[in-house]
From TrEMBL, chains A, B:
MF terms (GO), sorted A to Z: DNA binding; DNA-binding transcription factor activity
HTH arsR-type domain: residues covered: 16-112
Protein's name according to its UniProt entry: Winged helix-turn-helix transcriptional regulator
Lineage: Bacteria, Bacillati, Actinomycetota, Actinomycetes, Streptosporangiales
Domain of life: Bacteria
Organism: Herbidospora galbida
One Pfam entry name: HTH_5
Keywords: DNA-binding, Transcription, Transcription regulation
Keyword DNA-binding: yes
PROSITE patterns in the record: HTH_ARSR_1, HTH_ARSR_2
Length: 114, 114
């Protein structure tokens, strides 16, 4: 069902291993596209699940093209989608975004030794 | 000299504009590669500037290939490099990493009104 994301320590804290780098590169490829970045942002910035019908007017692209981009975001584990009647609704997976945020952080590690 | 990074609000806070999305996609493309992600991490995790001679043993790649990947990271504004005698030394630009970290954060905005 849900993709488990085992890693990730911030890349500035310790060198990323080969396997983690390969897996993270796939996720980053999914967001390394202007349309997909905007789609992800439009979906993430909403308080409720986002209908593809609300995304279409934001782009000068066909519905199949938008659906294809959404599929790439879904396969990268960044969003989930569900058909409800005529339309498909999408929402982000916050843990997937938090993981990318943590990857790039340069903030010092919290020293919560106990 | 240094690239000014005008944006970015977290993508979950408000929809990214077209221009910001295009520019950010370029930076993300630079890190959406396993070798470059590892290079960036190896450089960022060091306390001092990193000699390309210390990066080479970590990869089964030629020096020109490593240098090419470093050039892509440099052109994306993620690292800086400088020749010192025989070798090139690199270091990360923390603001560039922090910007990516902020982009993906889902933490609520701080309400520091004053």
């Amino acid at each position: 069902m849900s993709k488990q994301t085992s890693c990730c320590a911030p890349l500035a804290r310790e060198p990323i291993g080969k396997d983690d780098a390969a897996e993270l590169a796939k996720v980053l490829k999914a967001v390394a596209d202007p349309v997909r970045l905007r789609l992800l942002s439009l979906i993430a910035a909403r308080d409720e699940d986002t209908c593809v019908c609300d995304l279409l007017p934001e782009f000068d692209l066909s519905q199949p093209t938008i659906s294809h981009h959404l599929k790439i975001l879904r396969e990268a584990g960044l969003i989930e989608s569900e058909r409800r009647g005529t339309w498909v609704y999408s929402w982000v997976i916050p843990q997937a975004l938090d993981r990318l945020s943590a990857l790039f952080t340069t903030a010092p590690a919290e020293t919560g030794a106990r």
